[in-house]
Amino acid sequence: ETGVTQSPTHLIKTRGQQVTLRCSSQSGHNTVSWYQQALGQGPQFIFQYYREEENGRGNFPPRFSGLQFPNYSSELNVNALELDDSALYLCASSSRDWDTEAFFGQGTRLTVV
Amino acid sequence: AQTVTQSQPEMSVQEAETVTLSCTYDTSESDYYLFWYKQPPSRQMILVIRQEAYKQQNATENRFSVNFQKAAKSFSLKISDSQLGDAAMYFCAYRRGGATNKLIFGTGTLLAVQP
């Protein structure tokens, strides 16, 4: 197992609500990326944080936002949830400075009803 | 835009046999990396093997090896001596060289291993 942990593992929310997902990066890693994986699909890049700044964003609306903290852990926030936001959300940590590969957490399964 | 295509939604292999998973990609970049990730039912994405585009030699990790054909933009994964624990979803992924560690994934191949 990697040192990347995500919480919670499962979550059920109602359409229109807001949700916060959390990720603790592996020790020594300063970069966190978030991905959305819809059922039966490959993960899609949402955004990446490097040293507390957003450093790249995929094709996701502004209601998807994030934070990275001084200890390099991260949050993904989604406002005004829609049914299509139901997916597995994966967090990956890496070290941009050392060009290491991404190590993934086990994901948070979000269901929007 | 870069794309990754996996044309085999499902594959099956007998235990101890060899199987090859296919992947093609499209990019105009010269500096990039290619990966195969394994996603078992536990959902955690596990790196299987990595290939740097500038390296001509195909990467190998124990029973896993790749056939990297740069001109054809093809990147297949060969699993030798298949084991029951190899059963999982396999994703091919691309990353451009440089600052952003953004991975572009294919749609995956579900590998079943028959005892």
Key features of this structure:
heterodimer, A: 113 residues, mainly beta, seven-stranded mixed beta sheet, four-stranded antiparallel beta sheet, globular, B: 115 residues, six-stranded mixed beta sheet, 53% strand
Sheet of most strands of chain A: 7 strands, mixed
What's the oligomerization state?
A: heterodimer
- Counted by DSSP, the helix tally of chain B is 0
- Shape of chain A, please? globular
| Series of H and E elements of chain B | EEEEEEEEEEEE
Radius of gyration of chain A: 13 Å
Q: What is the helix fraction of residues of chain A, given as a range?
A: under 10%
Classify the beta-strand content of chain B into a percent band: over 45%
* End-to-end CA span of chain B: 41 Å
Approximate strand percentage of chain A: over 45%
Low-confidence stretches of chain B: none
User: Which radius of gyration of chain B do the C-alpha atoms yield?
Assistant: 14 Å
Given the structure, what is the number of helices of chain A? Answer: 0
The CA-CA distance between the termini of chain A, in Å, is 31 Å
Q: Structural class from helices and strands of chain B?
A: mainly beta
